[in-house]
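Re: [help] complex structure
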Amino acid sequence: MQHVVIIGNGISGITAARHIRKQSDCKITVISGETDHFFSRTALMYVYMGQMKFEHTKPYEDWFWEKNRIELKRAWVKTIDFEEKKLYFRLPNNIDKEAKIGGSISYDKLILALGSTPNKFGWKGQNLAGVQGLYSYQDLKSLEETTPRIKKAVIVGGGLIGVELAEMLHSRGIEVTFLVRENSFWNTVIPPEESTLISRHIKENHINIKFSSELDEIIGDENGQVKAIKTKNGDEIECQFVGLTVGVNPNISLLKVPQGNMIGREKPAFVLGVGGIKLNLGILVNEYLETNIPDVYAIGDCVEHENPQKGRKKLEQIWYTGRIMGETIARTITGKRTKYQPGVFFNSAKFFDIEYQTFGQVPAELPEDTKTFYWEHSSGRICVRINYTAENQAVTGMNTFGIRMRHEVWDEWISSAKRIEYVLENLSKANFDPEFFKQHEAEILKKYNTETGSSLTLKSKKGIFSKIF
Amino acid sequence: MLQKLGLIIFIAAFGLFIGTLGMNNYTLTDEILEKNFKEEALFDAKIELASMVDQSYSNSYTFTNELSEGIKQLNKVYNAQQAWDKKIYEDTILSIVKSSANGYLVDNKGFMFFLTFGMAIFGALLFILPEAQKPAGIKNNGIYFNPAMTRKWLGICIGTFFISFYIALYFKPQYIANWTMLIDPVSKLINGGEASRWFMYGFLYTISVLVMGIRYIIKYRHSKYQIIRTLSIMFFQTCIAFILPEIMSNLNLPSADLKNMWPLDYSFFFNYRLDKLLTSGAFGIFLLVWGIALFVVGVPVMVYFFGKRWYCSWVCGCGGLAETLGDPFRQLSDKSLKAWKIERYLIHGVLAFAIIMTIGVLYTYFTGSYTLLGFIPTESLKSSYGFLIGSIFSGVVGTGFYPLMGNRVWCRFGCPLAAYLGIIQRFKSKFRITTNGGQCISCGNCSTHCEMGIDVRAYAQKGQDIVRSSCVGCGVCSAVCPRGVLNLENAETDSRIMIAPDVLLGNLMEK
Ligand SMILES: Cc1cc2nc3c(=O)[nH]c(=O)nc-3n(C[C@H](O)[C@H](O)[C@H](O)COP(=O)(O)OP(=O)(O)OC[C@H]3O[C@@H](n4cnc5c(N)ncnc54)[C@H](O)[C@@H]3O)c2cc1C
Ligand code: SF4
Ligand code: SF4
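Output below.
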């Protein structure tokens, strides 16, 4: 029986395991050093904020794995011998006592789903006590340990995890200063209007957000504990905690050292660059998620696509792409070699109280051949942006803040290149807000009519499902 | 600051409320005995309780205890003699205790009402209202650090209080006689008489729903669905369940909670109630027809269009208390598959029990025979249902276990009406909770905060609609989802996605 080994029990690795099990009877082992069971990384913040307990972040009950014959192994892989198709585990040490030692294990097919690690850019003092990123279960634990004793924190880096960390610390009454390199929040990803809206909302929540400021160094006290930071503008900010949230990068350090077990072998093991696995920023894979080594695949955050689809990035480190890769690789492993083909891009987040969804492509800077329509509610907390081609008015992407939209409907509109006018007239079909919520479609349409001199009218009132009778 | 003050006032008023239980002096007199005992039993009572008469007691517990003991002796004798009509019930004891009381509380009911209820409500509002200044949105921060909401010491204390309260209310009301006294001023205002224990309970219940309803509305004020739903609950509890029946009885009509229905209202077909309706003219007949139409026509039609939520989280009193007073405990419901299995056996078992019991009762009513099918004793069926389900399950466990097993223990495991509504919701209804394409991030907020213990995430993360007989449509899963994945919707019954797709939306790989 073929033995499929998956390193990494995150969304990508687990999705792969589940789908392989659905389609085949082979032996499946999932290895992770982080936790015994799959948990939702995206929910770490809610545990810290006391909205749930860690056990609630586990999407499957603990009996699920045995019932589905997915073997779990809690261990850190130290080295992989691609030639002998064998993994070796790291000896337990003080840092990860929980990871059990298991010698080695052989595989027929190997899926690398290693995830990513928070970036650290070599700042002075970045290894002081009280300085950390937020990615893993261990990060959560150390956050839980450090922060009850502190009053002031600085967060470096204005991305999604940065705001989450700000919200987390703020919920525990810690004064947060948020250093953002750009002059408005996340404006390398979202257009200026949205960025302004969110920046305003972050301030509204009493986060001291400092734009155009970059970290210069972190200053420690005599005990090696952080006591302040210095920005490049020369400001010094007192703090007992520094959160580094300046993005993540593929977690491939394991593969960057020569691979293979040297002991008891006649032939030398693979050495990086000499028949080793091809790496760049991440593990390089082709359209089939295959690495350069036969029977070795990579999925999820740790992947770098050599030839991404048109309009897609080489690195897309989000939950949804990890899941789609997991679904896809399962096909290949179980005998039907299948290309990774994500559909219309989508993503979502929540900034304090404002939910955000995006479908298709809405770059921060408007491309030449694209037009845009933007509507914002007078409250300044709700907005919608729709991008469309100048040439034939086909919608290419949308952002929504504060209104829930139906994924299915937008997926269909974008993939079938519906015209902006059609979309606006039928916008209520995409409305996914709960019953009785105020609907804004009429107002949105009115703005478009005024701006373009058209006279469009709403074609339907509420979403396709919500007609009461 | 204000909130702390509110909390202190509330705790002080609550402490005083408990304190009132021991506040009075008691003197039992012959007049009191004469007023409360039936002719046949009076003589025995005078002998049995002779040592108590005209004695002044300063300790309410000693008094009540001695009195209860004496009456227990009497009842023992009557039991032995099979003299059922002489037996003395809780309400008589309660009434004796009330009449024997004298002292500060008796003389200052209004003021004491103000100091306990008035101040408790004031303190609670002072604690609750300032929340409205914070930005609107889901604020569940810190609930898992709160000892009241996590089965820690405070939760256990609250649970113990609820459980003791229900046991006293149902079985030993004489021990909480002073609480009914506190409510007398309100009772006088509404129906001119003294408060019975059920009036006291109804009042407490309504106040809880109202005050905690305000809390709920503030907490979920970003959601219009939640606001309207909660206003509906508050309306039905206050006007339909609490005030309207009082008005009816003031008008000398048979009183009824018009929104309550069989089989939740399990005594609807009991002989004394049928007799009363049948002998009260047109209005009685109307109530009878209304009561039957509600569950025969109302339930199937309304559940078909809206799901069981129209009742369970918009109208029902038990649901109303769960949604308001119980909201802080919603996360404590067990989400495991095992709990779901137990739930199905239990709730359908209770439904079957209720049906058989009612058939038995009606059989007896129409035929006069006390054994159904020759071997089922209808009377004991009736009394055991009343005791086990009506009192213990729905009251003591149903509410008492809020802080231990979540706020819908009764609705989830016990309510026969919920079982009936649920069967229709599961098999023939337009209602479902839709999941939004491939947007779920498996974070678990929905499952954690589902009061019915539904593992909502299990459906959402595989793109299957949530069609569950137990879902009461409270809408909280949808409210707490940080990615806008869930929505309560009504559409064609066959458009419900009952089987998860192979892969979620967003993956275009070849089939
Ligand atoms: C706080 C936070 C919030 C987020 N929110 C969102 C969001 O809202 N939406 C969204 O789309 N994305 C979000 N993301 C990103 C998303 O969580 C990731 O894209 C996704 O979890 C990646 O999944 P994965 O399976 O590729 O990797 P991971 O989940 O990182 O899993 C990899 C696993 O492999 C283990 N591993 C690695 N190396 C070894 C080794 N040598 N031996 C043993 N085990 C090893 C790791 O310990 C880890 O457990 C968030 C991320 C974070 C940190
Ligand atoms: S599934 Fe949602 S709507 Fe239904 S009971 Fe649970 S939380 Fe309420
Ligand atoms: S709360 Fe929303 S995103 Fe989180 S698991 Fe539930 S449906 Fe998914």
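Chain A touches chain B through 60 residues (CB under 8 Å).
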